[in-house]
Amino acid sequence: MITHHAHFTDVAANCFWNGLHRESTHVEIVERDDIKILSIPIDEEKVLEVMLLSESKTGINSYSPSVYMRNVRGELLATLDFHQASELIIGTDKIVGNIDPEQRRHFLAAVAESHRNTWVALEQFGQSLGESATTFLESEQSLYVGHSLHPAPKSRSNLSVEISRQLSPELKANFALRWFAVQDESVFGGAAQGSRWQQYLQKLQDHEAKLPSGASKYLNQDSWKVIPMHPWQAQQLLVLPQVKDLIETGKLIDLGLGSRPGPPLPQPEQFITLRRLICSNFL
Protein backbone atom coordinates (compact mmCIF):
# COMPACT_ATOMS: atom_id res chain seq x y z
CA MET A 1 0.00 0.00 0.00
CA ILE A 2 1.24 3.46 -0.88
CA THR A 3 1.17 5.67 2.21
CA HIS A 4 -0.65 8.64 0.65
CA HIS A 5 -3.48 6.27 -0.40
CA ALA A 6 -3.81 5.19 3.23
CA HIS A 7 -4.05 8.85 4.28
CA PHE A 8 -6.82 9.43 1.73
CA THR A 9 -9.11 7.12 3.67
CA ASP A 10 -7.39 6.54 7.09
CA VAL A 11 -7.13 2.76 6.86
CA ALA A 12 -6.52 2.50 10.61
CA ALA A 13 -9.87 4.15 11.36
CA ASN A 14 -11.67 2.00 8.76
CA CYS A 15 -11.20 -1.09 10.93
CA PHE A 16 -13.03 0.62 13.78
CA TRP A 17 -15.86 1.89 11.57
CA ASN A 18 -16.37 -1.51 9.94
CA GLY A 19 -16.36 -3.31 13.27
CA LEU A 20 -18.81 -0.77 14.68
CA HIS A 21 -21.18 -1.15 11.74
CA ARG A 22 -21.00 -4.92 11.95
CA GLU A 23 -21.60 -5.21 15.69
CA SER A 24 -24.05 -2.40 16.55
CA THR A 25 -27.70 -2.51 15.55
CA HIS A 26 -27.92 1.24 16.17
CA VAL A 27 -25.28 2.14 13.58
CA GLU A 28 -26.44 2.09 9.98
CA ILE A 29 -25.52 3.15 6.48
CA VAL A 30 -27.95 5.71 5.10
CA GLU A 31 -28.16 7.42 1.72
CA ARG A 32 -28.51 11.16 1.25
CA ASP A 33 -28.28 12.95 -2.10
CA ASP A 34 -26.72 9.82 -3.67
CA ILE A 35 -24.03 9.78 -0.97
CA LYS A 36 -23.80 6.87 1.47
CA ILE A 37 -23.05 7.77 5.08
CA LEU A 38 -22.28 5.78 8.20
CA SER A 39 -24.73 7.20 10.75
CA ILE A 40 -23.89 6.86 14.47
CA PRO A 41 -26.42 8.18 17.01
CA ILE A 42 -24.79 9.72 20.09
CA ASP A 43 -27.97 10.85 21.87
CA GLU A 44 -31.48 12.06 21.04
CA GLU A 45 -30.08 15.31 19.64
CA LYS A 46 -26.77 14.45 17.97
CA VAL A 47 -25.47 12.03 15.37
CA LEU A 48 -22.00 11.40 13.96
CA GLU A 49 -21.63 10.92 10.22
CA VAL A 50 -18.78 9.43 8.17
CA MET A 51 -19.03 9.37 4.38
CA LEU A 52 -18.42 6.06 2.59
CA LEU A 53 -15.80 6.20 -0.15
CA SER A 54 -16.41 2.62 -1.24
CA GLU A 55 -18.73 -0.15 -0.11
CA SER A 56 -18.10 -3.90 -0.09
CA LYS A 57 -20.56 -6.76 0.20
CA THR A 58 -18.17 -8.31 2.72
CA GLY A 59 -18.49 -5.27 5.01
CA ILE A 60 -14.92 -4.11 4.42
CA ASN A 61 -15.79 -0.54 3.48
CA SER A 62 -13.58 2.52 3.27
CA TYR A 63 -14.55 5.89 4.69
CA SER A 64 -13.64 9.55 4.55
CA PRO A 65 -11.17 10.55 7.31
CA SER A 66 -13.51 13.41 8.30
CA VAL A 67 -16.22 12.89 10.95
CA TYR A 68 -19.12 15.33 11.25
CA MET A 69 -21.42 15.89 14.19
CA ARG A 70 -24.92 17.06 13.24
CA ASN A 71 -28.12 17.75 15.12
CA VAL A 72 -31.42 16.05 14.29
CA ARG A 73 -32.21 18.84 11.80
CA GLY A 74 -29.03 18.02 9.86
CA GLU A 75 -27.18 21.17 10.87
CA LEU A 76 -23.42 20.85 11.24
CA LEU A 77 -22.30 21.21 14.86
CA ALA A 78 -18.62 20.21 14.65
CA THR A 79 -15.94 18.44 12.63
CA LEU A 80 -14.13 15.78 14.67
CA ASP A 81 -10.96 13.79 14.26
CA PHE A 82 -10.99 10.02 14.75
CA HIS A 83 -9.90 10.12 18.38
CA GLN A 84 -12.58 12.64 19.36
CA ALA A 85 -15.21 10.59 17.56
CA SER A 86 -14.16 7.24 19.03
CA GLU A 87 -14.18 8.72 22.55
CA LEU A 88 -17.75 9.94 22.06
CA ILE A 89 -18.85 6.58 20.66
CA ILE A 90 -17.25 4.52 23.43
CA GLY A 91 -18.90 6.84 25.94
CA THR A 92 -22.36 6.11 24.51
CA ASP A 93 -24.26 3.40 26.40
CA LYS A 94 -26.68 2.85 23.54
CA ILE A 95 -23.79 1.65 21.38
CA VAL A 96 -21.32 -0.08 23.71
CA GLY A 97 -23.74 -1.16 26.43
CA ASN A 98 -23.70 -0.61 30.15
CA ILE A 99 -20.02 -1.17 30.92
CA ASP A 100 -18.07 0.32 33.79
CA PRO A 101 -15.68 3.30 33.40
CA GLU A 102 -12.57 1.14 33.66
CA GLN A 103 -13.72 -1.07 30.78
CA ARG A 104 -14.42 2.02 28.71
CA ARG A 105 -10.96 3.42 29.40
CA HIS A 106 -9.34 0.12 28.50
CA PHE A 107 -11.33 -0.14 25.25
CA LEU A 108 -10.60 3.47 24.28
CA ALA A 109 -6.89 3.01 25.02
CA ALA A 110 -6.80 -0.13 22.83
CA VAL A 111 -8.50 1.69 19.94
CA ALA A 112 -6.13 4.66 20.20
CA GLU A 113 -3.11 2.38 20.49
CA SER A 114 -4.12 0.34 17.44
CA HIS A 115 -4.61 3.51 15.40
CA ARG A 116 -1.19 4.81 16.49
CA ASN A 117 0.63 1.53 15.85
CA THR A 118 -0.89 1.18 12.38
CA TRP A 119 0.31 4.63 11.37
CA VAL A 120 3.76 4.16 12.88
CA ALA A 121 4.20 1.12 10.61
CA LEU A 122 2.62 2.75 7.56
CA GLU A 123 4.68 5.91 7.80
CA GLN A 124 7.91 3.93 8.08
CA PHE A 125 7.29 0.93 5.83
CA GLY A 126 4.03 1.54 3.95
CA GLN A 127 5.58 2.04 0.55
CA SER A 128 4.30 -0.13 -2.27
CA LEU A 129 5.98 -3.53 -2.63
CA GLY A 130 5.59 -3.17 -6.40
CA GLU A 131 4.88 -6.01 -8.80
CA SER A 132 7.77 -8.27 -7.83
CA ALA A 133 7.14 -11.51 -6.00
CA THR A 134 7.64 -11.44 -2.23
CA THR A 135 8.82 -14.09 0.16
CA PHE A 136 6.50 -15.53 2.79
CA LEU A 137 8.28 -13.47 5.45
CA GLU A 138 7.98 -10.22 3.46
CA SER A 139 4.28 -10.84 2.92
CA GLU A 140 3.61 -11.57 6.58
CA GLN A 141 5.56 -8.51 7.69
CA SER A 142 3.52 -6.32 5.34
CA LEU A 143 0.26 -6.81 7.28
CA TYR A 144 0.28 -3.20 8.43
CA VAL A 145 -3.44 -2.70 9.04
CA GLY A 146 -4.69 -5.89 10.67
CA HIS A 147 -8.18 -7.40 10.75
CA SER A 148 -10.50 -5.17 8.72
CA LEU A 149 -13.52 -5.78 11.00
CA HIS A 150 -11.76 -5.51 14.37
CA PRO A 151 -12.04 -2.20 16.27
CA ALA A 152 -8.44 -2.38 17.52
CA PRO A 153 -6.51 -4.93 15.41
CA LYS A 154 -3.05 -3.52 16.15
CA SER A 155 -3.44 -3.00 19.89
CA ARG A 156 -0.37 -4.35 21.69
CA SER A 157 -1.65 -4.66 25.27
CA ASN A 158 -0.66 -1.05 25.91
CA LEU A 159 2.98 -1.59 24.95
CA SER A 160 4.95 1.57 24.33
CA VAL A 161 6.03 2.50 20.80
CA GLU A 162 9.60 1.60 21.79
CA ILE A 163 8.65 -1.92 22.93
CA SER A 164 6.38 -2.36 19.89
CA ARG A 165 9.34 -1.54 17.65
CA GLN A 166 11.30 -4.34 19.33
CA LEU A 167 8.57 -6.96 18.94
CA SER A 168 6.10 -6.15 16.13
CA PRO A 169 6.40 -8.01 12.82
CA GLU A 170 5.13 -5.09 10.73
CA LEU A 171 7.94 -2.95 12.19
CA LYS A 172 10.50 -5.51 10.94
CA ALA A 173 11.48 -6.42 14.51
CA ASN A 174 14.17 -8.98 15.30
CA PHE A 175 14.75 -10.48 18.73
CA ALA A 176 16.32 -13.52 20.35
CA LEU A 177 14.12 -16.23 21.82
CA ARG A 178 14.28 -17.04 25.53
CA TRP A 179 15.10 -20.67 26.24
CA PHE A 180 13.93 -23.00 29.01
CA ALA A 181 14.60 -26.54 30.13
CA VAL A 182 11.39 -28.34 31.11
CA GLN A 183 10.86 -31.74 32.65
CA ASP A 184 8.95 -34.08 30.33
CA GLU A 185 6.09 -34.52 32.78
CA SER A 186 5.20 -30.82 32.35
CA VAL A 187 5.34 -30.51 28.58
CA PHE A 188 3.22 -31.60 25.65
CA GLY A 189 3.08 -30.35 22.09
CA GLY A 190 1.30 -30.27 18.78
CA ALA A 191 2.06 -29.39 15.17
CA ALA A 192 -0.29 -27.70 12.71
CA GLN A 193 1.17 -29.21 9.55
CA GLY A 194 1.41 -32.91 10.24
CA SER A 195 5.03 -33.24 11.34
CA ARG A 196 5.88 -34.21 14.89
CA TRP A 197 6.43 -31.20 17.16
CA GLN A 198 9.63 -32.78 18.48
CA GLN A 199 11.10 -32.54 14.98
CA TYR A 200 10.16 -28.89 14.77
CA LEU A 201 11.70 -28.26 18.18
CA GLN A 202 14.92 -29.85 16.92
CA LYS A 203 14.91 -27.47 13.95
CA LEU A 204 14.55 -24.50 16.30
CA GLN A 205 17.48 -25.73 18.37
CA ASP A 206 19.58 -26.30 15.25
CA HIS A 207 18.71 -22.82 13.97
CA GLU A 208 20.30 -21.18 17.01
CA ALA A 209 23.90 -20.21 16.34
CA LYS A 210 24.58 -20.79 20.01
CA LEU A 211 22.15 -21.95 22.67
CA PRO A 212 22.49 -20.50 26.18
CA SER A 213 25.43 -22.02 28.02
CA GLY A 214 23.27 -23.96 30.47
CA ALA A 215 21.32 -25.79 27.77
CA SER A 216 23.88 -28.49 26.94
CA LYS A 217 23.31 -30.55 30.11
CA TYR A 218 19.59 -30.95 29.28
CA LEU A 219 19.74 -31.54 25.51
CA ASN A 220 20.57 -35.23 25.63
CA GLN A 221 18.47 -36.16 28.64
CA ASP A 222 15.32 -38.13 27.84
CA SER A 223 13.47 -36.62 30.79
CA TRP A 224 13.98 -32.99 29.70
CA LYS A 225 13.06 -30.78 26.75
CA VAL A 226 14.82 -27.52 25.83
CA ILE A 227 12.23 -25.15 24.37
CA PRO A 228 12.16 -21.47 23.36
CA MET A 229 9.58 -18.82 24.12
CA HIS A 230 8.77 -15.32 22.92
CA PRO A 231 10.70 -13.05 25.32
CA TRP A 232 7.75 -10.76 26.12
CA GLN A 233 5.49 -13.76 26.68
CA ALA A 234 8.04 -15.29 29.01
CA GLN A 235 8.29 -12.07 31.00
CA GLN A 236 4.52 -12.06 31.55
CA LEU A 237 4.20 -15.73 32.44
CA LEU A 238 7.17 -16.02 34.79
CA VAL A 239 5.43 -13.86 37.40
CA LEU A 240 2.44 -16.24 37.65
CA PRO A 241 2.34 -18.20 40.94
CA GLN A 242 1.91 -21.57 39.22
CA VAL A 243 4.89 -20.91 36.96
CA LYS A 244 6.97 -19.77 39.91
CA ASP A 245 6.09 -23.09 41.53
CA LEU A 246 7.52 -24.99 38.55
CA ILE A 247 10.76 -23.04 38.92
CA GLU A 248 10.93 -23.53 42.70
CA THR A 249 10.39 -27.28 42.34
CA GLY A 250 13.10 -27.53 39.68
CA LYS A 251 10.77 -28.56 36.84
CA LEU A 252 11.39 -25.40 34.83
CA ILE A 253 14.85 -23.88 34.31
CA ASP A 254 15.25 -20.41 32.79
CA LEU A 255 18.30 -20.67 30.51
CA GLY A 256 18.21 -17.10 29.21
CA LEU A 257 18.22 -15.60 25.72
CA GLY A 258 19.57 -17.33 22.66
CA SER A 259 22.14 -15.76 20.39
CA ARG A 260 20.29 -15.49 17.07
CA PRO A 261 17.74 -12.71 16.57
CA GLY A 262 14.82 -13.80 14.43
CA PRO A 263 11.83 -12.05 12.82
CA PRO A 264 8.44 -12.48 14.51
CA LEU A 265 5.37 -13.42 12.49
CA PRO A 266 1.71 -12.57 13.18
CA GLN A 267 0.58 -16.22 13.25
CA PRO A 268 2.26 -19.39 14.61
CA GLU A 269 2.71 -22.48 12.49
CA GLN A 270 3.63 -24.73 15.39
CA PHE A 271 3.31 -24.68 19.14
CA ILE A 272 4.62 -26.31 22.30
CA THR A 273 3.12 -25.81 25.73
CA LEU A 274 4.00 -26.45 29.31
CA ARG A 275 0.96 -28.38 30.42
CA ARG A 276 -1.96 -26.02 31.26
CA LEU A 277 0.44 -23.22 32.17
CA ILE A 278 2.59 -21.85 29.36
CA CYS A 279 1.96 -21.57 25.63
CA SER A 280 4.82 -20.80 23.25
CA ASN A 281 4.16 -19.70 19.67
CA PHE A 282 6.83 -20.30 17.06
CA LEU A 283 7.40 -19.50 13.38
Account of the 3D structure:
This protein is of the alpha+beta class and 283 residues long. It contains eleven helices and twelve strands. The strands form three sheets. Strands 1, 2, 3, 4, 5 and 6 form a six-stranded antiparallel sheet that branches. Helix 1 packs across helix 2 and helix 3 runs antiparallel to helix 5. The chain is elongated and about 75 Å long.
Low-confidence stretches: 1-6, 265-283
- Total E-strand runs: 12
What is the overall pLDDT average? Answer: 84
Give the CA-based shape.
elongated
Radius of gyration: 23 Å
In terms of topology, how is this protein built?
Elements: H1 3-9, H2 11-23, E1 28-32, E2 35-41, E3 46-54, E4 62-63, E5 67-71, E6 76-80, H3 82-90, H4 93-96, H5 101-125, H6 136-140, H7 161-167, E7 178-183, E8 187-191, H8 197-207, H9 216-219, E9 224-229, H10 231-237, H11 241-248, E10 252-257, E11 270-274, E12 278-282
Antiparallel strand pairs: 1-2, 2-3, 3-4, 3-5, 5-6, 7-9, 7-10, 8-11, 11-12
